Amino acid sequence: MQKRAYAAAVLTALAVVSPVAVAEASTGAASSPARYVWLKACAKADYSVPCGKWMIYRRDGSSTSLPDAQVHQVTASGGVDRESSLQPALSGDGRRVAYFTTAKKLVVRDLVTGKVHPVRGAAAKPPKGLLINDLDTMLSYDGKRLAIDYVQGTLPSKVVDVASGSYYTLPADTSLQGFSGDGSKVMVTATSDQNTTIFSSYDADGEVSSQEVPQVVDGNYPLALADDGRSIAVFIEGRQAALRVYDLASDSVGPPVKLTMPKGERANKLAWQSSDRLLLWTYRNNANGDVIGGGLRTIDVDTGELKKIDSWTLRSGLWIWWLPGE
């Protein structure tokens, strides 16, 4: 399975922007939720490599480190590859982060209290023959559930309850798109024998609903599964951005609701906040198309009204960065 199959491509490029003033801290706890997690780039000869510690950039403008987080990928011989990095996963609310520690343990840290929750049971370690590099993770909006994907695509992914360590699995031939707002269900996509796209939802009891989707839905991103396991919000890009809701159970598509996107911004991630409201994370681009920042807004599902919650400017000199829910 490949969880970030629909994700935006601009992730590792170095952003050319003015630095922002932040307060650096070395503790893992602070009251403000995360805007994004980032890793610095350092020059090496005529190219850049990842360096420093993983950092959390918060809504209050401060940055706090993940002091126990593994930065670099590992090698089969037990060493590290200092020209590559692992990738933590932030919960959608920005209050939890999943990562491997320097002891190669998979944990979920509460960014408000600083408490670290080790992932327990069979999901805690890579399957035989795989390295920690071969695992990709995604947290639910509240960070209480963790999806673990094995990037070779030959093993079923696990959806883990962080508190108990219990889990259920997803078919290996599907791509995870995200959790429902309450984390009780997940949405996956797959390709049929006729090369059409299949949307499916799952929970701990198995498949909830599945359909080959119409062309008006296929190929659009971002997507968001509602708590009912059947309503999927679909962001439609184009000259006139729009939102449609696809019913996975009845195979029906609601009318387009027009959206007025802020100039220079593009959609990155959707999540249901309530039955009539969505959260939308965006990237902000300059005239050259470089990512220079982003924002968080609500969308009224019925009217398309957007309301700003937060906006931020991307730091300069980054190796990589990830938004909440990615």
UniProtKB/TrEMBL annotation:
Q: Does the keyword Signal apply?
A: yes
InterPro entries linked: 6-blade_b-propeller_TolB-like
UniProt keyword terms in alphabetical order:
Signal
Presence of the UniProt keyword Signal in the record: yes
Tell me the SUPFAM superfamilies matching this sequence: DPP6 N-terminal domain-like
Highest taxon in the source lineage:
Bacteria
- What is the protein name stated in its UniProt record? WD40 repeat domain-containing protein
- The organism encoding this protein is Herbidospora galbida
